[in-house]
Specification:
Blueprint (H helix, E strand, L loop, with lengths): L1 E6 L6 H7 L7 E5 L6 E6 L4 E6 L2 E6 L3 H17 L4 E5 L4 H10 L17
Antiparallel strand pairs: 1-5, 2-3, 2-6, 3-4, 4-5
Length: about 120
């Protein structure tokens, strides 16, 4: 595992949502109840990386194996729950190839599960 810390100021999470960590590049959003313009997390199952943007601080973790990547995402879920934040799920952004990659790693249970089908659900 390689962890890189950096700084992205001034800014907000939307640079990552709409440019750096887009589904076009294989990224999914890791949604929690603490998401805000100043906080967001993303995961890429193809690259086995996570990105966390928090108030200008940037943390990128590259995992060596699928197992380590899966454990890292399960730890993100557990940490949020310990802090009283709801883990809402991994949003594959309507991309089947991203969804299949998470499922192949054994993380299908962490993906967003639509409560009911609507015209805007993927």
């Amino acid at each position: 595992m390689t962890k890189t810390n950096g700084l992205h100021v001034p800014g907000d999470r939307y640079v990552y949502d709409f440019s750096v960590c887009t589904p076009h590049f294989g990224w999914a959003q890791v949604d929690t109840s603490q998401d805000a313009p100043y906080f967001g997390q993303w995961a890429n199952p193809h690259q086995r990386k996570t990105v966390c943007y928090c108030e200008g601080d940037l943390t990128v973790i590259a995992y060596d194996t699928d197992e380590d990547f899966a454990a890292g995402l399960r730890e993100i879920k557990a940490w949020n729950e310990r802090q009283g934040h709801e883990f809402l799920g991994i949003d594959c952004m309507c991309r089947e190839e991203i969804k299949r990659a998470f499922e192949a790693i054994g993380l299908g249970d962490l993906l967003h599960q639509p409560k009911r089908r609507t015209s805007w659900n993927c």
